[in-house]
Design goal:
150 residues; alpha+beta; Rossmann fold; two-stranded antiparallel ribbon; 11 strands; globular
Length: 150
């Protein structure tokens, strides 16, 4: 993957697009990834499968942002209290949403400019989550609702 960039992130394929989860160490990236997978198992989402945990490769291809697991970590996820566990994983997915955990600049009603981010030259919808906020309900709402016109 010579034209790919490695980032400190987790990713979960939810339906047809991946959720790319970024944030500082200890912000809950792995926890949110596992919570999304569990939400699908409970029927709260139609489908969710791990793509990457801890380190992900991202690359722009044909106007899309692709995400892959680091080969040595493929199928592995850290679950606090259990350690490293193995899950079924997707080898590649197209990113449809970026989640930034532990963002001190997160706002109650974000400005339009804060609702998107550019990675590898690709504009992607973005959800910023303040430190200490449970991200799962926000992410589920973002995935299951449509934005209103500002």
């Amino acid at each position: 993957m010579p034209d790919s960039s490695t980032i400190h992130a987790s990713a979960v394929l939810v339906g047809a697009k991946a959720v790319l989860i970024r944030g500082p160490s200890g912000s809950g990236k792995s926890r949110l990834a596992f919570d999304l997978i569990e939400a699908a198992a409970r029927g709260a989402l139609p489908f969710a499968r791990l793509v990457a945990d801890d380190r992900a490769y991202v690359e722009a291809r044909d106007g899309r942002l692709l995400v892959r697991p680091a080969p040595q970590l493929a199928g592995l996820i850290e679950i606090r209290g259990l350690g490293i566990r193995r899950l079924v994983f997707e080898p590649v997915a197209t990113v449809g949403l970026v989640i930034d955990l532990g963002d001190p600049n997160s706002m109650r009603i974000p400005a339009n400019a804060d609702r998107e981010t550019t990675l590898e030259g690709v504009l992607i919808p973005r959800l910023s989550v303040a430190p200490g906020v449970d991200a799962l309900p926000l992410v589920l709402a973002a995935l299951r609702t449509a934005a209103t016109v500002d």
